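mind reviewing these tokens:
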Amino acid sequence: MNKTLVVVPTYNERENLPPLSQRLLALPAPVDMLVVDDNSPDGTGKVADELAAKHPSIHVMHRNEKNGLGRAYIAGFKWALEHGYEFVFELDGDFSHNPDDIPMFLETARAKEADLVLGSRYLNGIRVINWPLSRLMLSKAAAKYVRIITGMPFTDPTGGYKCFRRRALEALNLDDVRSNGYSFQIEMTHKLWRQGMIILEVPIVFTDRFQGRSKMSGHIVREALLMVWRLWFQNKLRRRPTGRPPVPPPPAKPEGTQSEAATQPPGDKLQGSQPSRAPNQTVRR
């Protein structure tokens, strides 16, 4: 099994899924792919099953209804933790995110011991393709809004191209994450940032979808506007992290020696959410 899992939520992505899977399978850094399909009426789930039957590194989770981007990712994160992955990616299923950037994310996470690597459209310039000016202005304004209220120093807090280290996801109670859309991205990053986790940004090029329809809606924007204030209150009206950065893991011990985990008292273990499969989803491996 590979140590890296790419979670791809899908809803009516039948045309994009086969070429996306090919790009992921061809990466120099081996990855597994988990398709989380929300019962797409265009048959995306069936296409995903056909791909999984041909490629053992592709897995499919079927959910009974469309329940939002955030819920799809949470289901994928729980599955990733349950199956022992060290690095877990968020990746759009419409080629808005370039799969070829995945090795760059992994190199940054490993070299800098980062808990979360964010793909930024606005780091050292603007790299967005196929967006109208109004959409770009909305996105830039949202980034500034988030920074002013929460204090998070990131250039692109609403971006959805991310690489989580396992320990970061384990530090969260995933069942407490209730938001979707832009607000989901903001909430996940803020929960880790305020704990003092190591979060870095890398530059990416974002290309808006050329096939299918955008999932953006007024409801998603309103949810994000309100979520930012809730996060500020959760952080006790502070605009800085309240936790300490995690201690880097100790070097591996020679075989035959007892690991630190084996001698650690049960009460000292990091508390996190326990992954489980929701009753409205099935997984094909």
Remarks:
- The beta strands are 4-10, 32-37, 58-63, 87-90, 116-120, 128-129, 162-165, 199-203, 206-207, 281-284.
- Residues 174 and 273 are 6 Å apart (CA to CA).
